[in-house]
Design brief:
seven-stranded mixed β-sheet
Amino acid sequence: QVQLVESGGGLVQPGGSLGLSCAASGNVASINDMGWYRQAPGKERELVTAITKGGNTNYADSVKGRFTISRDNAKNTVYLQMNSLKPEDTAVYYCYILSGTYTYWGQGTQVTVSS
């Protein structure tokens, strides 16, 4: 059984910063890609960013230059640093990992950007 535990998130003013983390535990085999999706109210879940085991990254156009993904392979943890946050970044953020042929998901954490 694999569990992903997210931490971070919360309420921040526009222009502010937040950091998220997601730690995988349990019977975790080799982890390939790790990343983050988000889902805003009334919208579909969208890919925010992902990182390969080798450290290659990709970002949604809407967050390029503002968000940074990183990972610690020894800790099976992925991080998301979010800077210059905008109200449209408000969403529930979900981490995921690809391990073998399986995709595992975090429980989701709310990020609200509002003054």
